């Protein structure tokens, strides 16, 4: 935690202090997660015969997902609404095999 002002810390309510400490712990967990992912990427690059940058991290793909992610979600929602309208009132007709 990068707050060194004791007056500021003591002015927080217990709930605010607890949330700040939880945030610090989440930041530490994220740091360890990043280190684990970095270690896996390094190991993969080390063991590969001909490592390519996009095999470790594909920046183009990440940027494309970031840009199109929202658009694709909106399109998916529109498709689901249209599908629900199409099947509204649909009653399947189950018949036994063999005729009657």
TrEMBL record:
Keywords: Coiled coil
Stretches of the chain forming a coiled coil according to its record: 56-83
Top-rank taxon, per record: Bacteria
Tagged with keyword Coiled coil: yes
Entry annotated with the keyword Coiled coil: yes
Provenance organism: Salibacterium lacus
The name this protein goes by in its record: Uncharacterized protein
